Amino acid sequence: MSRARSEREAGGMSVIEVSELRKSYGGRTVVDGVSFAVEEGEIFGILGPNGAGKTTTVECVEGLRVPDAGRVRVAGLDPVADHGKLALVLGAQLQESRLQAKLTVREALELYAACYPNPADWRPLAERLGLSGRLDTRFARLSGGQKQRLFIALALVGRPGIVVLDELTTGLDPHARRTTWELIEDVRDSGVTVLLVTHFMEEAQRLCDRIAVIDQGRVAALDTPAGLVGRSAGATVISFTPSAPLDESRLAALPGVASIAWKDGRVTLAGTDGTVDAVITLLARGHITAHQLRVSDATLNDAFLDLTGADR
Ligand SMILES: Nc1ncnc2c1ncn2[C@@H]1O[C@H](COP(=O)(O)OP(=O)(O)OP(=O)(O)O)[C@@H](O)[C@H]1O
């Protein structure tokens, strides 16, 4: 376990503090009192539906947007007032428009490395991100995935203590995504704090120590991935095709049942471990066989849909 992680588990210090953050565009409030604290050495995820206010929130952390109200501190700095100092401690994934089309990959890495007092050797970083064969390619000629990997390299080359990654692996193929996850885990294990905006549940579940689910500009939940899954209305999902008619009211009366859905003679219940036991007992008493019985745990995706009402 890294030093930073064990410190965190012992109640480490917050390196990013966001308190009652508010931001409106043209009179429309898109960030409405967001608060969270990111502790040193953790990967903190921000998850939410499109337009929830995630990018606006992290851009306030990066000092790219000025909050209307609330307080943001990054390594004790005010991101707007102390922007110059912040640039030395915070690495951020660039937006595409911010890099000169004619720069080669090598030039971009050298240029960014030269901006920091103690940069990483960019060659192993480029190698790790699969860019070694593209060092002389101009930015404009890179594929979407290669640009994305270059942005990740540029965010890390200054050896920042804090990294903000917005849509880290969007546009990457499954292999590159996995490699990038391993790189981010190594970065975290070296003590770096990572703030990660993502749409990928698998990414959030694998990488994040804690996640803030943001919906309509507010924090809907803040917990570990396992904690969020545990909050899902039905943490266990049971489905089967009964061999004889089954009265829905008897299923609904079982302990812990959160929902029941029928399709083509097959029933799917969301509930708890206790629901599984009760279903088996009910079926046994009625001498009913459960054909193609499947029992699975709810996923972060289920929790996300419950929390954000994203199916509304
Ligand atoms: N500069 C701007 N001017 C006006 N409205 C904006 C501006 N930037 C963002 N918005 C609006 O604010 C809302 C929140 O946007 P934001 O990009 O923060 O959401 P998000 O959660 O990151 O969304 P996504 O997942 O789609 O990237 C959206 O409705 C967006 O259209």
TrEMBL record:
Top-level taxon in the UniProt lineage: Bacteria
Main location: membrane
Keyword ATP-binding set for record: yes
GO molecular-function term, one example from the UniProt record: ATP hydrolysis activity
Topological category with respect to the lipid bilayer: Peripheral membrane protein
Keyword field: Antibiotic resistance, ATP-binding, Cell membrane, Membrane, Nucleotide-binding, Translocase, Transport
Enzyme class: translocase
Subcellular location: Cell membrane
Keyword Protein biosynthesis among record annotations: no
Cellular component aspect of the GO annotation: plasma membrane
Pfam assignment, any one: ABC_tran
Protein name: ABC-type xenobiotic transporter
Organism from which the protein derives: Streptomyces hainanensis
